[in-house]
Amino acid sequence: MELEKTNNMNTLYEFYNVLLTNKQKGYLSLYYGDDYSLGEIAEEFAISRQAVYDNIKRTEKILMDYEQKLKLAQNYSLRNKKLDELANYAEEKYPADRTLQSLINNLEELDDKDE
């Protein structure tokens, strides 16, 4: 469960970090990205452990609210799943169709450019 939450928060952070304050980015990046403890983050920023905890919880809620409204991560995941299905189907049914393969590759590259 904890690993799933960490992966989810990291995904949401990737999509919405530009909407966060520098402080929120710093706390979440250290906590979820670098696996710092609350105490280590508190020491790094010279604040209380409780202040770090409160900020992280608020920021988690903000990220989940963004996703609930905008659904960027959900749509990205769904789009990748459908693109994989299309690529597999094209490879199975039309392996010699280089134009189709090229079009699928172009679609895959669109998301790669955004990363």
Automatic annotation (TrEMBL):
<dbReference type="InterPro" id="IPR007394">
    <property type="entry name" value="UPF0122"/>
</dbReference>
<dbReference type="InterPro" id="IPR013324">
    <property type="entry name" value="RNA_pol_sigma_r3/r4-like"/>
</dbReference>
<dbReference type="GO" id="GO:0003677">
    <property type="term" value="F:DNA binding"/>
</dbReference>
<comment type="function">
    <text>Might take part in the signal recognition particle (SRP) pathway. This is inferred from the conservation of its genetic proximity to ftsY/ffh. May be a regulatory protein.</text>
</comment>
<dbReference type="InterPro" id="IPR054831">
    <property type="entry name" value="UPF0122_fam_protein"/>
</dbReference>
<protein>
    <recommendedName>
        <fullName>UPF0122 protein FHK04_06960</fullName>
    </recommendedName>
</protein>
<dbReference type="InterPro" id="IPR036388">
    <property type="entry name" value="WH-like_DNA-bd_sf"/>
</dbReference>
<dbReference type="Pfam" id="PF04297">
    <property type="entry name" value="UPF0122"/>
</dbReference>
<comment type="similarity">
    <text>Belongs to the UPF0122 family.</text>
</comment>
<keyword id="KW-0238">DNA-binding</keyword>
